[in-house]
Specification:
Layout lengths: L2 H26 L3 H20 L2
Helix pairs in contact: 1-2
Length: 53
């Protein structure tokens, strides 16, 4: 595989992990409104990170 592709994939996996951690942190606050807001806001970012290569 191309080294550039590998490093780009690693960066995207880190971005996805950051988004997941952010969502879990918000869930810990147990505020349903902020959970919904964060998921709604993060969905385009997460799908963009996962599916853009």
């Amino acid at each position: 595989m191309n080294q550039g592709v590998i490093s780009k994939t690693n960066i995207q996996l880190k971005n996805v992990n950051k988004s997941v951690v952010k969502v879990f942190n918000i869930i810990k606050t147990k505020n349903k409104f902020s959970i919904g807001l964060a998921l709604f806001y993060d969905l385009p970012h997460m799908s963009k990170n996962i599916f853009t290569f």
